[in-house]
Amino acid sequence: MNTNATTSTNGKAAPAAPSRLRVWFDQHLHGLAFSLGRTLRKPWATLLTVAVMGLALALPLGLSIVMDNLRHFAGSVQQSREVNLFLKMDVDAAAATKLADELRGRGDVAAVDLRTPEQALAGFRESSGLGEALDALGENPLPTLLIVVPQGDDDARLVAALQALPQADLVQHDAVWRQRLDNWLRFGQRVVQVLSVLLGLGALLVVGNTVRLDIQSRREEIGVLQLLGASDGFIRRPFLYLGVWYGLGAGLLALGLIAAAGGALREPLAALSASYGSQFSLKGLDALHSGMVLLGTVLLGWLGAWAVTGHFLRQTRPTET
Questions:
Q1: Closest among 230, 201, 219, 231 to 312, alpha carbons compared
Q2: Which among 1, 77, 139, 219 would be 20 to 30 A from 286, CA to CA?
Q3: Smallest Cα–Cα separation from 174: which of 162, 156, 152?
Q4: Is 87 helix (H, G, I), strand (E, B) or coil?
Q5: Helix (H), strand (E) at residue 171
Q6: Average pLDDT of adjacent 10-residue blocks, the chain of 321 residues
Q7: What is the structure's pLDDT at 6?
Q8: Whose CA is closest to 247, among 304, 189, 163, 310?
């Protein structure tokens, strides 16, 4: 009787051959475990490689976080956009209120805060502690102040319009200071980008050199595998995972260094901000950005290992005769 099942000599069905997907998965799992074992068998060499990579990656990462915090701090300082309009001494309260209402109706004005001479004197008395000296003056020497918050980014036109008002005595605006700060922030961001490329390239070379040394120590074994017909992918796979482990370790070390530095700086920065009456606090990396950093370091390690193993296999590939 014919049957479709394959039977062995004792009448039992022979085990089915593993699928290509199962073979592929087993090979990758073996390469992953084998490469991890290689790193654990050389702890000092592994630690040195990971430390060099971690320090090289932590520097641009830390500078990038500093620049983001500075940009956040600069954007949160609303006083840098305020225009202080000091009115002439002969402008009374009614005229000042009418002018404030007119300015609020402009499309390039977000808000107007009116400070009367009495309010300004009371605030100065409280902040300076010169109450007795101010009482000796007899009359209030401070003018009426309008604090104008611009709408949009074009402040120059508004400042020119305020200076042309007949009631205006003095207009103060920190546009030059803000422009210089923005230029410094853009320059700092470009410096971070350049350092990231250079130090990232250095980390890639560290991985490549470490993997190259490991390849040289297994040169005879690789030659035997090539003679037996092993594919380049089979030979390369453990070394790629070796680069992945180096990249993962370097990424974790870089994140740990950044967290330690943030913890050391957070308390004195909070005290400094409190002395200026600000609630600014240092912001670190959240879970999403930390995951992106780890992914980037893993890809960096993989790329370094891939470049070195590819170059080695091209040089040692057996030639047909």
A1: 219
A2: 77
A3: 156
A4: strand
A5: strand 168-173
A6: 47 58 67 72 83 87 81 58 83 86 85 81 60 56 81 76 86 72 81 85 84 78 74 77 88 90 81 67 80 89 86 66 42
A7: 46
A8: 304
Phi, psi torsion values for 305, nearest 5 degrees:
-65, -40
Q: What is the DSSP letter of 139?
A: S
Which residue type, as a one-letter code, is found at position 206? V
In the chain, which segments carry CATH 3.30.70.3040?
89-166
What is the amino acid identity at position 93? A
Coil, helix or strand at residue 79? helix
Do 152 and 27 meet the contact criterion of CB atoms below 8 Å apart?
A: no
What is the CATH architecture of 89-166? Answer: 2-Layer Sandwich (3.30)
What confidence score (pLDDT) does residue 253 get? Answer: 92
- Read off the DSSP letter of residue 230: -
- The token pair at 89 is 């001494």
∠ CA 176-182-183, nearest 5°, is 90
Which ranges constitute the DSSP H helices of the chain? Answer: 20-41, 43-76, 93-104, 117-128, 131-135, 156-163, 175-217, 219-227, 232-275, 287-316
- Would you say the pTM of this structure is higher than 0.85? no
Measured from the Cβ of residue 173, the count of other Cβ atoms closer than 10 Å reads: 21
> CA 251, CA 253: separation in Å to the nearest integer?
5
